[in-house]
Amino acid sequence: MLELITIHKSYEGQPLLRGISGTVAAGETVCLLGPSGSGKSTLLRIIAGLETYEQGQVCWDGMDLAPVPVHQRGFGLVFQDYALFPHLNVAENVAFGLKMQNLAGTETGLRVANILEMVNLTGFGDRRVTDLSGGEQQRVALARALAPNPRLLMFDEPLSALDRNLREQLINELRRILHQSGIPAIYVTHDQEEAFTLADRVLLLHDGSIVRSGTPEQVWSDPRSVWAAHFLDAGNVVSGIVMSNTRPFRVETPAGMFELDCGDVHSAGEKVNILVSRRGVRQAADGIVSGIVVDVIFRQDSFKVTLENGLDFYLPVAPRMGEKIYLTAPATGIKCLL
Fold first, then answer.
1. Residue 229 has pLDDT above 80, yes or no
2. How many domains is the chain partitioned into structurally?
3. Which of 34, 91, 197, 200 is deepest in the core (most CB within 10 A)?
C-alpha cells in the first residue's frame, strides 16, 4: 500500500503542496482531480521519485521511499507525450522495461504478446511506433508500463492530447485493463468525466490541498465547499440567511425558502451557502423556488431550464419561455457548503 504523510513542497518560495496525506490500497484506482496549478503532477512526480519535497514521507508498505531511487521503486509511469523510443518497434518498446528483470528471450516474448493482447494491439509487434496513431501510441506506452508487472501504475494526464471520441474509448479500455490487472493506480487529470469513470476514489485538489475525497458519487453529490461545487459544476450554489436554529433549518435566499438538515449547527441570522441539485426537482403550485423562464435547451432525456435569477434545472417537460414557474426540490438534493 502507498501512503503519503503530510507532503509539503514549495516552488520559488511559494507553497505548492500543503500537507498532502492519503493512501492507495491494493487494486485501487485513485484519481487526483483538479485544475492546472493545483499540484497534481508535482505530487505524482514526488511519488515516482522525480521531485524532491521539504517535509513528509512517501511510504510503501510502511517503508520510507526517500532513499530508494526511481528505477528501484517498481512503479510504472504513463505520460501525455507517450515517451516512446522512435528507433524501436512496438514489441521492442514494450520489452524495454523487462530487460532489467533478466528474463529469458522466450519468456520476454510471451510476456510482450500477452500484454499487447491486453491492450488490443495483437499483431502490432513489428510496427514502427512512428507509424501509429496517437491512440495506438498511448496503448503502447501503457503496455510498456504494464509489462514489468509494476506494484503501482501512475498516469499523468495521458489522454489530454487526444480527441474526445478517442479519449472516451481509451478511458473505458483503461478501466477494463486496470480491473483486469489488479494493479493499484494513481491517475492525474483535470477532466472530471475521466476521473469519475476510472476512479474507485477521487482526491480533489485545490491550491495544493485536498479539499474533498471520496467515491465519485460522494464527491459529486456532496462536494462540501463552494469552490468544489463550482469546479465540478455540481449544481446551483445559492447564498442565504438561516431563519431559525432548529432542524430542519430554513434558509431564505433570493431564489426562495429552502429547508435542509446538513448535520452542522447553525444560528438564526447566519449567512450560509447551499448547493441545490439541478435534477430531481418538479413543478408544483406550492413550490419553494420560483422564477421566470429565460432559456430552454433540450438535453436528450430532459430540458435544461434557466430562470432569470440565474438558477438552472433539468425538467422532463419544457415550460414556455417567459413563463413564471414554481419548483419543489427534494431534501436530498440540498446540501450545505463551506
1. yes
2. 2
3. 34
